[in-house]
Amino acid sequence: MKKTTNQSGIALIYSENDFLINKEFAQAIIHEIEKAGYRGKLFLVNHDHCDQIDLTNFDVVINRSRKGSFLKNFKNQKFIFNRVDFSEMANDKYLTFEWCKHHKIVCNEIKILDMAKAKDYRYPLLIKNRYGHHAKEINKINEFKDLLSYENNASDYIVEDFCENAKRDVRIYVMFGKIIKIIQRTVEGNEFRSNFNLNGVVKEIKLSFLKKRYVKKIIKKLPDGYYGIDFFINKNKLILNEIEDVVDSKALSKANIDFNISGLIIKNIVKKLKNAQQFRNQALSKLEY
């Protein structure tokens, strides 16, 4: 393809909060769009003006907004990456749990916080904001009275058994149906959340043939895009913890993995555009949960 400006436009949409954290990654994506000869534009959205952006002149949307309702009228749903229904599922931990159970994927048992039953919970336990995206929104609860501060917004929180295995997890980076990198994140001392932002250690690893085959079966149930899947390992089994919709490349950099993620995203999208008619004719199956 000639590196001249193509009439096709590719819109990159970020929430304002995520953009502040991932500014370099977002700028790298725009650079790769323009390098490939396409028009690229960055849109920043927040809760108040999601519906005010004009995507009329864009053929592709790279959706990193963690939202989807404002994209439901976009002219070509197949060219939204990550897809609307996927983003809604991945950014709600309870919906992720429901999706896993529907597809018989091994995951931790969770429940929406119910204060009427909370005295009967087994303590200690973990409480998480079901729409949260950062390890700091996960807390250990040692007894019932520690839950009282969550009472007014109970439906926004999920609870699950406390597990020592949470000190170590595996993140699998997936791009357009393929595993591209796998890292392990580990924390030490009293910290129980395996997140490299909490002074965790990150390293690249390989999975066994059987574990990798299991992950590929999960990926086949998900639409095209770029995302991460986080697993705990318990008794040598992968336990799906969560799906990270707006995954970036910071952890890969910390593990000293030199990999052009933004370039690979655009390479995959350009390939879809070149085969646009064939791609449009493929069935658009709904996520089920």
TrEMBL record:
Cellular component terms (Gene Ontology): cytoplasm
Keyword terms: ATP-binding, Nucleotide-binding
Keyword Nucleotide-binding (UniProt): yes
A GO BP annotation: SOS response
Domain ATP-grasp, chain residue ranges per copy: 78-270
Cited InterPro entries: ATP-grasp (IPR011761), ATP-grasp_RimK-type (IPR013651), ATP_grasp_subdomain_1 (IPR013815)
An example Gene Ontology molecular-function term: ribosomal S6-glutamic acid ligase activity
Record's protein name: ATP-grasp domain-containing protein
Organism: Mycoplasma amphoriforme A39
Lineage: Bacteria, Bacillati, Mycoplasmatota, Mollicutes, Mycoplasmataceae
